[in-house]
Design a protein that fits this description.
mainly alpha; 70% helix; single chain; Arc Repressor Mutant, subunit A; Tetracycline Repressor, domain 2; 2 domains; 0% strand; 8 helices; HTH-type_TetR-like_transc_reg
Length: 195
Amino acid sequence: MTDTTKQGTPRVPPKRADAHRNQLTLLDAAAALFVTSGVEVPVREIAAKAGVGVGTVYRHFPTRAELIIAVYRHQVEACAEAGPALLASHTSPYTAFGDWIQLFMDFLTTKHGLAAAMQSDAAGFQILHSYLIDRLLPVCTTLLDAAVESGEIRPDIDAYELMRGVGNLCIGAESDPRYNARRVVALLIAGLRQL
């Protein structure tokens, strides 16, 4: 007999704690491998890094597209949550902002792979892009405002333009061994300093 709500719809049981932990571990493992090896990394490598069986990966994410989208959302949330945590744990808002930009760059590597993987679903990718802007633009703005208020960076920086600029500097970095996007972005962030 199926458990139902008052409206007669089946009630979905909550995920067990261990299943939720497995899913988060899988998302973290996949995100790390997407950064180093691209979104086409074999599922068996993701499972091995997460310390689970391949079947567990497919139980949580039946298709690669579902896994990639889940990693994308997971990384956006991690990046959004990291902003306030970095600001609280650093004495310098500028340093907190620089550390956050590094996390944002890790995310962008996955995002660019996702864009390539979702070429046939432009509408779906646009929804995810809007989700990114809605979640991360306020975080970037807060970090920039704190660094401006502390006198560490110049006051004329727009968070959206900066995020777009960092994103553009990351394009193609994974396919050109002579191009170090982290170094170039570090130069950009250094250029924000108040003289």
